[in-house]
Specification:
It contains twelve helices and seven strands. By secondary structure, it is an alpha/beta fold. A seven-stranded mixed sheet has the order 3-2-1-4-6-5-7, with helices on both faces. Helix 8 packs across helix 9.
Length: 363
């Protein structure tokens, strides 16, 4: 059994994989190790390169994921596929310094820590040639993350070593989505964790491109909300609710526009409702269920089931709001109550019937 498993999440990193595997072999000389490369399918042949190497080197393994995507979930699957007592996580883009893995491992193996983190922001560390805007975003995210992990200089780091016993203790409390798996692990521990940091200098990316985008930013805020609210609601619900807010804004805009043009309220309300539901479906398909994204015919079937579920949700909203109002509650309390119950109905119903994942509503 290997002592340490290096988990490498990879999406569109074909050009970097051979150099990374060679660098890990040199950096981990003298250790009993293995590498699990978790490839999110990008039709670029990354998995072929990993399997070719695995044929020559039993220390290299490949997990290929079809129809699912996301760094955090890839890391979790790779970590759970390992039997090693210590697990390292490193990016595939060669920006992390693989020679630091033995030092991080020593900190965890020596009972000093549950997690050893490579930090860019402590003394001796550096962001290298990372652009100023990216550095500012990273530092802002780190500042916001202080609500969940005080005292850590680089909670946005994707380079660390974790003790398996710690992973097994917190894994069922993870948000498990997005790109910030370290922050997720630490937040899930609720303060019951020993963390140490070692400095490293970030390298420049030679091939490929950054995965930072609006979905990554949205997932970061949903991760914060998930843990700050004590994990009372499924992780996806927060993104679903955020999309619902945008739908409400679109509804009011379309209603105002059409009513001003036609003077027909009922017709304007009907079109506004249709526009909001359509927008909500496509935004949820990209953001909330991006890892189960519907395409082709499945997408159009999904649209129809989404319409059906949300139409019932609208009726539930009206019925509950009216009942609360008749109970002498203020109109805004009644309206909020109806909308909240309808949102829960829409979320759990569409999770089962539109995106169809048996565990979709739990994550």
């Amino acid at each position: 059994m290997p002592e340490v498993t290096v988990v490498v999440p990879a999406y569109r990193e074909r050009e970097n994989i051979p150099a990374l595997l060679h660098a890990l072999e040199q950096a981990l000389a003298g250790l009993d190790w293995e590498t699990i490369v978790v490839v999110d399918d990008a039709f670029d042949g990354t998995e072929e390169l990993v399997r070719e190497r695995a044929q020559r080197d039993p220390r290299v393994r490949c997990i290929q994921r079809i129809g699912r995507r996301g760094l955090a979930s890839a890391c979790i699957e790779g970590m759970l596929a390992s039997s090693a007592p210590y697990i390292a996580v490193i990016d595939a883009d060669l920006q992390h310094d693989e020679t630091l893995v033995p030092q991080l491992l020593a900190k965890v193996r020596g009972e000093e820590a549950d997690v050893a983190v490579a930090s860019r922001y402590m003394a001796g560390g550096s962001t290298g040639e990372l652009g100023p805007q990216r550095v500012r975003l990273s530092r802002l995210a780190a500042a916001l993350s202080a609500t969940l992990c005080k005292g850590l200089t680089d909670p946005m780091s994707g380079f660390f070593v974790v003790r398996r016993t710690f992973l097994e203790r917190v894994v069922r409390n993870l948000y498990g989505r997005g790109f910030k798996i370290l922050l997720d692990l630490i937040a899930a521990a609720r303060g019951e964790i020993r963390v140490v940091e070692l400095p490293y200098r970030m390298r420049s990316r030679a091939y490929g491109e950054s995965k930072l985008g609006m979905r990554v930013i949205a997932e970061f805020f949903m991760l914060l909300l998930y843990h700050l609210t004590g994990r009372l609601l499924p992780a996806r619900f927060f993104l679903f609710a955020a999309v619902g807010v945008t739908g409400m804004g679109l509804h009011l805009f379309v209603l105002w526009l059409l009513f001003a043009a036609s003077g027909n309220f009922l017709l304007s309300q009907a079109f506004a409702t249709w526009a909001a539901m359509t927008s909500n479906f496509f935004l949820n398909n990209v953001f909330t269920y991006g890892d189960q994204r519907l395409r082709g015919r499945a997408m159009w079937r999904g649209v129809l089931s989404f319409y059906a579920a949300c139409s019932i949700g609208a009726l539930i909203n009206l019925a509950i709001a009216e009942w609360l109002f008749l109970k002498s509650l203020p109109y805004w309390v009644a309206g909020l109550g109806g909308a909240s119950i309808a949102a829960l109905w829409n979320f759990f119903t569409t999770a089962s019937f539109t995106w169809g994942g048996s565990n979709a509503a739990k994550r």
